[in-house]
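Record type: monomer structure entry
Structure origin: computed from sequence
Chain ID: A
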Amino acid sequence: METWLTHWEPDNAEFWEATGKRIAWRTLFITTVGLTFSFATWFMMSAIVVRIPQIGFKFDTMQLFWLAAMPGLAGGTLRIINMFLIPIYGTRHVITFTTILKLIPCIGIGLAVTNPNTPFWAFMVLAFTAGFGGGDFSSYMPSTRFFFPKNMQGTALGVQAGIGNFGVSLAQFITPWIIGIAALGASQTLTIGETTKTVWLQNAAFWYAPFLVIGGMIAWNFLRSVPIKASFKEQLDIFKLKHTWFCTITYIMTFGSFSGLAASFPLLIKSLYGSFDGAPDPLTYAFLGPWSVPSRGRCLVPSRTNSAARS
């Protein structure tokens, strides 16, 4: 099966109606579901880190906040790398392999929480790998853009970013109840005040694995790549545009504050109110913040790519 489309003219109305529309909307659907799981795996540590001390790990408050922050730091850094991948490797390869790559933090963190002797540095490394889910955001969005005509690109990006952001809430909403389901591996005793119960904290990471495998298989079999020509050197020109830096500053103030608070919010609730009588479970309400912010404005910076067919 061919990876690269041999001809792509989404702004040609006849081509769009006959061929382009079907491929573009299929791509948007697959990549949007994939992006939702990217965000969910990116933020799963923010929910898991609240439970780690309650099952016996002796990490102090500063260490716990570092574990919550590391995926965000990694995701922001890895986005710089991901932004160059689509023109070089294409949508099919990039989406498939970034989806499968997220199995590393999901399986790794799941195994780590089952072993009470897992050191802090190992959790930090795994928290960094959770940043894969944040980094590949800058592969998904540009990829989607090239499949749509110019007058529909904003709609497509809005749909993808808006739905994809629900992955943050998904991680924080699913964790409290899924860890109560018996699973493979040893159980842990969760202690909250004078209350104890049996949990399987590994579920909070393991449950993504089958969806990631299925998502990777679907991406490989149903996605194609728009023939874009842009070398690594050509793409570096974006750093010379003042609009790149203006949008970067704005993005830090908007999405940066959103993602930072979303990641630290459960642990913040626990740290500030956890010692009070009748204090709420931090994950009971933490998902509401990111759930209520499903979409944000985008800065679209011109690119020096061209969608001429590859020879």
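Annotation 1: The longest strand covers residues 188-192.
Annotation 2: The chain has a mean pLDDT of 85.
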